[in-house]
């Protein structure tokens, strides 16, 4: 196939060529006049399964012929060469072993790192170990580095690296994946050295960025019929520039650096690299020269001045290029989606290439409105798929007490109770949620489920409650268990929750691609559990979440033909008529180097490990290949969600170079590229444009008199005065704010608990006056808080607040007892007064009513916040004044008609105080007169219930502000009456 040569045989394919297609075309062309079986003697070694599939697909497209042997680099060890090499240890087993070793180390030396970082550290250390195996670097070589100026950090690093030394000492007996691959390549090279193959062997599509791959390429290049075919070789790069790429610390981020490293290893010059053969057209060739010049290494960009004026055809080079610089990420995604929609309508193959998964999600969501589903090569992360989420939620039951939020997250998951009667399950879930919102247990228990079932009228409710009570609560534990036990419990509990209370089958947890992938993860954990030892529920939860996040699921069944989303890796082996390079901002493409907790870049270079810039260089090569397609889009957003962005260095270089070439038309071509992008951005603005809608007026509904409330509580009177619309929504529309799903430690709950504590305390002291002590008060407080406040930190804070005011309260309580004795409390202190002339009823509850020997009454109300002042009580807050008037009118049966001597708000805030109701200024007769006047006004058909009529502060929030569409209007707007029928 190849003519004899005295130097390594290396070919390149120019930028812009479809590499797999050009490879296949070249192979066919070189065997055109040969017998058909000669092609079968050719071995083609490629670096990914994707590349192998694409090559086979191209051959399968015809004409019929015998095919070459196509092998993937990672499969070389499956033949006779790898027979004597032990199989690779599964990656999960290594990771679990490392986790156990790191965990033991952290227990001995907790200052090294947080326990929460256990699996992150094991992943990072495993990655370093793989890299050391792949590049042939031993722990001894790293330990021997001179780091006298970084002694503190270096000692910590050496402590961790000492953990992995044993995996190098016995690497040949229990190799990991990278070690076995290097052993296979070494054995293959040795075999070829003694028994060189006579048939052609080709390594195609590799850049030699990893040490093991470079070793293989060097071995193949030495064969008499060996050849390397390099993707995206820059034939326009001058030789003097090639020679300036020798220093990795300066040049590894250049897209062609890896080829310079290969040439040095093989003793070749750039002129020795032959073109494998591909016609890219004059416009793409011109663009290659433009892009190549823009990507010169940073110290040598002075070449722009010398070579820029010689660029022959900038207009031709950029005529297929569109530059989109959107204001926001949403605009960028919409512009891309519109162009992909256009491609789908025209039957044009189009692909979005980006490492930005947020951009791909936005584009996919935008395409969904036109029923276009792109073929996303990355698929969906397994931990975000339904089975992945379900397994993670179930795992949380082991490491935390079951809150209502976690309970209903599980019960509402589409895979829960999927084994039968799903609709009935959802009905029970809704009813149970409403019940728990009302009763507000901080952590629902089995008894709560049974109490709900006892009042439910459906005959299947008890069985469902029993299933729930026997399945969900009580799984949290602080005990360490073997991983095998955790995984078995996890799988069993997940399957029981998926099957449901009356299963017709085992549920849908393990069905479809996502379910099968999740099952494989769980089975792999079971297989390798013996390597992990005991672990806590917290560690197990982190492990499962981490393992699931490493998987992905693809659904190839429902995609729109010709519309694709690729990562940069997938783009290397595929082609399309339109390529959209998205997310071209610094930190995205190229991505920011991943922080390395072990070695800085200088130490990496000394040790022979890969530099952080390697990934930037590979990304630059991906960019250089993709930007050479016939039609391309370059897109970025000027702002992220919270800040200005910086354009990708490659976009900056290209635009700066073009701006510096006005005489060659660079400025005009750049303006044309931008104008084409602006045209599509204008379309996105048109797509997003909405017709103006007039804001809602300030409502003041006037319902029929028959619908207006005839019963109100004394606490509603303040609301009727300040926010009549709230009374309309609550009592006429019958709307109530939904109780919170999870009871939070908020001010209303604190107020309720303080009321309970004080009521129990005062009752106790009435029965036993000697218990009127601080110790008794705090003892009762501890009992109530232990029962009703399951938040340790909050409980301590609330107890401390009560203790601060306890002495003041006891002192004032003794004063109150000298005047009267507590008579009734909230549950028994219920009063009702009917106003027959209005057909209206006022009702209320008093916190506490005391009575002296003469029958005179003292009325008290506890406030944990700021009590209303006397002036506020005169105008707005009529609670105590009304309750006093009701007592004098005989509205409280437990008290009877009595004179009220005092009515006092007892404020128990940070500054305890007592605020008396102005009984002298506001006698009962006046209060009744004002109340009748107020009620009569709102029984007038012409009176509307105005929203936020007289709130104390403009910033006050009401329960019904959203219903009244507050925000579209403000308090300065006049109310708009509306008659309702």
Number of strands: 26
Compute the gyration radius: what is it?
39 Å
Question: Could you name the ranges where pLDDT drops below 50 across 5 or more consecutive residues?
Answer: none
Q: How does the overall form come out from the CA principal axes?
A: elongated
Distance between the termini: 93 Å
* Total DSSP helices: 38
Strand order, largest beta sheet? 3-2-4-5-1-6
Task: Please characterize this protein's 3D structure.
The chain is of the alpha/beta class and 981 residues long. 47% of the residues lie in helices and 12% in strands. The chain has 38 helices and 26 strands. The protein has a six-stranded parallel β-sheet with strand order 3-2-4-5-1-6, with helices on both faces. A six-stranded parallel β-sheet has the order 7-16-15-8-14-9. A five-stranded mixed β-sheet has the order 19-22-23-24-25, with helices on both faces. β22 (848-851) and β23 (857-863) form a beta hairpin. α8 (177-194) runs parallel beside α9 and α31 (714-722) packs across α32 (724-732). The longest helix is centred in the last third of the chain and has 28 residues, at 792-819. The protein is elongated, with a radius of gyration of 39 Å. The termini are far apart. The mean pLDDT is 90.
